[in-house]
Write a structure and sequence with these properties.
The chain is α/β, with parallel strands linked by helices. It has a single domain (5-165), classed as Rossmann fold, CATH 3.40.50.1010. It has helices at 11-19, 27-31, 41-49, 54-64, 87-98, 109-117, 125-135, 140-150, 156-165; strands at residues 5-9, 21-22, 25-26, 35-40, 68-71, 103-105. Strands 5-4-1-6 form a 4-stranded parallel β-sheet. Strands 2-3 form a two-stranded antiparallel ribbon. Strand 2 and strand 3 form a beta hairpin.
Length: 167
């Protein structure tokens, strides 16, 4: 198996990874074979501690077992001085900036653009699936199934283009 990709996740991709299924299994289980996942402590609070939904029932044990790690977000830069996004989103961008060896996964378009303004080069979850399939050993057929299972969260054009990249 290839080396694992190190990833920083925002809450939305984490939730999607826990709720989208392929062969009746949340896709996060297969992705953990190809990626080391890190979230901010605020993502933990937002997703894990305040909800009692299916995604939490999947994510909580992965967090407590250390399969998903949590890191504190740095206090700077003060992104919210310029942009009206949540502190959770700011923290994900700041953590991504301090961990340039990791790929930051952001699915919120506004947050994505703001991250780019800070010279972070995030990816959407769909792009992560392509990267894992082309460079980190994820089976392309499985990746295509994962894309299809997440399709309701993305525009049809993003889904079609991602499926094309996975041919």
């Amino acid at each position: 198996m290839s080396q694992k990709l190190s990833v920083v996740l925002d809450s939305s991709p984490l939730i999607t990874m826990c709720t989208a299924k392929v062969k009746n299994e949340p896709i996060i289980y297969a992705l953990l074979n190809h990626a080391d996942l890190t979230v901010t402590e605020r993502v933990v609070q937002e997703v894990i501690l305040h909800h009692d939904k299916s995604d939490v029932r999947i994510a909580r044990p992965l967090m407590t077992s250390g399969q998903i790690t949590a890191s504190p977000a740095p206090a700077t830069p003060l992104i919210s001085d310029f942009y009206q996004i949540s502190e959770t989103d700011c923290g994900v961008i700041r953590l991504g900036l301090t961990m340039p060896e990791r790929i930051t996964i952001i699915d919120d378009k506004e947050e994505y653009l703001i991250a780019c303004r800070y010279n972070l080069r995030p990816l959407f979850l769909l792009d992560l699936l392509v990267l894992l399939a082309t460079s980190y050993g994820l089976d392309k057929g499985t990746a295509r199934d994962m894309v299809q299972s997440t399709a309701k969260r993305y525009s049809p054009a993003y889904v079609a283009h991602t499926q094309f990249m996975l041919r």
